[in-house]
């Protein structure tokens, strides 16, 4: 009888231990799961919910209206401009980030410069990445001001006879904000690609040299293929980040002049905080979310394939 | 033993992790707007952008005086710059967590009132038997008051005395013709000097209110008819054509289409423009940044031969009460305190603004003499801001701004722009 009791205790103890062991992993992931639930799942679910209701927030008793807000957003006359501007801004920024990042990374990886010089340039090149968006916007607004340093230099060099309104002219505003975004974002590529370059085995280049490959051939056949995984991953991330850029545009041009720098982000912000059309803003945000999710899906699939 | 120890350690860690997760969820889900009450004491939250614009500690000192007079009420100030306050107030209104007492701009009131996020002050005044006649103005929606302007800032014309003298102009222009002549003379001084500065940034399109529509108001014009948009009338058309004329003459400072109010003040402070229309609240900033700048203020020029009362734009620090507040009576006590003759005088003196109580008088002793001049302009003119209380006022300015930028860049005529702006505005009413 007593033996039976002991066995039952042992069995219960083992079962408790086994249950505890099984639950422990869930305990460990619970803070992250809670964070994701509170900061990701709930807001996303709320925004999706808002997008199918009659003007939520402003209206105390909103009604379900289906996809009316989506139709209104899709037929908004400013949307095509915002989509086109976002596409131009994103594509040009991502390509320029890549080209400049690769160029500077290769310069910093060269053996032709001393360690001190390389270190100095490493600091200089990475500086734009250290500034917050607000600082970048103020800095470039001052530099590109019609009475600013850049115009002063251009006038002094005789390249123009009066100050160019870089951010205020419909002809140059989109180019100007794209340029600022390129300046602010290339260091991310540079640092990642530099790490990638330093990881390429030297014997590949030595073998190529023995085979008589030129510098360009080495770059094309060794460097680029070796960096391909980093380039693809970063480009996908950059497309997602750049297409959602808001603060820089808002603080430099506010989407103007007229709507030449209107992006999907500023378009959505104005729907919510200027028009108080929170349902339409939610619909616009959901559409951006879907596009970002598609990109994220390809990014995740690519990463999985690599692993 | 080791294995047992590791298991115990892992168990404790996992429990800690779970507890922290639960705490996190609980913390995130607890309401943000409710005010804690402890043993008969009430804590009022008061969100506003005033504290950063007043001398350090000034608003807190006013609140301390209020608390001394009302020992059961504590006021917690939630202060942020104007733009942040605006976004936070909109978000708080949306989530039902608006502070008990809330600083308001006239441009937000209509939307908050329709949303039901701000309380009907008419009812509160009635139940408190408050004498409304002492209030200089009230912002009403549908016949009920939702905002009371605590202090008002007028927007007169600022002129750079030295530049005007250099351009051979002895006194500030009073008519549009004189203004054009002065702006042209100033722009001919060379260098980067321009006659006038016009901020039209779409980020903060209040330039339409202060720098464009003010030309119509100064000549007794209106952009509304029976409370509805009337942008194609002769007064607005004339004012818009006048600004376009100044633009075409090349007397406007470059960069106008993305220029903000802050940039405008910088241009004037640095002596690059001779004239601007601006808030009186910037006098101190200009003096601090450029102590050597000699400038004057005067009424905004009107059309030639205009003899009526000149409209002068103004902006207010308005106050309202959250409809969700559990302490509306205590909140009203605070509003009433701020609107009382003595406190309102003190607040208007501190803010270099004009009082919202008709019996209050700002104390100009020891202040910049320009404030006294401005007070005279304010009293002799008619303070006007037709955007106050309109639905989506910010968007109305932006709609007008976008069309007006089309005029300035030569893609459409003034008449077409006004028709389009009128159509856009009509959809908002």
TrEMBL record, chain B:
The keyword Cell membrane applies. It comes from the Bacteria. SUPFAM superfamilies: Periplasmic binding protein-like II. The keyword Lipoprotein applies. It holds the Pfam family SBP_bac_1. Keywords: Cell membrane, Lipoprotein, Membrane, Palmitate, Signal. PANTHER family: ARABINOSE-BINDING PROTEIN-RELATED, POLYGALACTURONAN_RHAMNOGALACTURONAN-BINDING PROTEIN YTCQ. This is Sugar ABC transporter substrate-binding protein. It comes from Lacisediminihabitans profunda.
